[in-house]
User: What shape does this take?
Amino acid sequence: MLKRLPLLALLAASFAAAAATLARPADVPKIPYQKHALKNGLEVILVEDRSLPLVAVNLWYHVGAANEAPGRTGFAHLFEHMMFAATKHLPRGMADNLLEAAGVSDSNGSTSFDRTNYYDTLPAHQLELALWIHSDRMGYLIEVLDQTALANQQDVVRNERRQRRENQPYGIVEEALWHNLFPVSHPYHAVIMGSHADIQAATLTDIKDFFKLYYRPNNATLTIVGDIDKGKTLALVEKYFGRFRAGDEVKPLAVPTPIVTAEKQVVIEDRVELQRVIMGWHTAKIYTPGDAELSLAGQILGGGKASRLYRSLVYEKQIAQDVSAAQDSLQLGSVFTVDVTARPGRSAREIEAAIDEELEKLRASPVEGEELERARNMIETSMIAGLQKVGGRADLLNHYNHYTGDPGYFARELAAYRRVTPADIQRVVNEQLKKAARVVIHGVPGTPNFGPE
Assistant: This one.
């Protein structure tokens, strides 16, 4: 292994060139890793990369918005914020100050339906500092959490909801798709931000119970990528995390995917000037048959200016100003969306009819081989580009480990895309993107209904 050669950067450049010429890259970049498990159940994934004196520390807890109890929507995201509160050994704000003084970059946390992660990239010689801070949160946060900290973060999270949903154009229009695709009883119904009422209703007891169940070492995976010695790094992980006791087993969620048997049309008023159409379907779970085909279909339909929807609705008909289509791949069931904003003077009905015209073409005839190749190369280029930074690699290995149990799933995902044929896309689109199995949201100018504060 050539430790100082920026191999991934070179591969990314070659993949970009391949996409431009529609050539198929033959080689698959390999990420040699080691996977360990401490006695308390903490999974540890290590990748040694000496190309730059940097290290990424990426900690995934296998809990997300889907794990929230009824009446506690937005709770997983609220708890993500609580993890940055004071711990037994670190007053609030000190962890950030220490990391900034150490030269940290790309430092944050995020919550999805299926997981919550916390991550930092910093100079390699500061690895121990990052491990101490992350372990202090895991082991010594709960002892000092109080009502003041909770009330403060409830205000912060509710303000974030206002900024990202209520004051963001089309924010509640996008949210309405999930509300109408999933019943109230489904973990994906509420969307990650939750409601004001549920966020405000969270109690300190709720917070502590959530922590004790989900924020235990046996429900977490720590991935470290960069300029490290794997043996010494594993010893450091044992030093800082090995003392914590495992919690109760967290059983995987088993929730059936809802079945939509008749098209549902919903009009949502918002403080916007232009009308928008958002369509959504229930589709194959992440990394199951149909998922790769629909990711490619999304690229063909709405992935950039060469896509079918862009060419038809923006260039030719000139009735839309932006388009997108994508497969949102998730653990309990994915969602395929088409999202189009009308030009001034154009209606949602007109946009919907134009989208349907392109969808019908995709159902009626296989895509051209060159069109599929272009979509495939764009996805592969994006995948490779995500490997260039140590933080991106660390998060990707955690992603694969969470969803498949195999941190080295990259080659298998790439192979899944390469196996897809034009006939496969036509078949899966006909099976899963039926007109009678979708929800259609029309976002129109008007007075929004934000619900109770």
User: Anything to note?
Assistant: Residues 31-241 form a domain with the Cytochrome Bc1 Complex; Chain A, domain 1 fold (CATH 3.30.830.10).
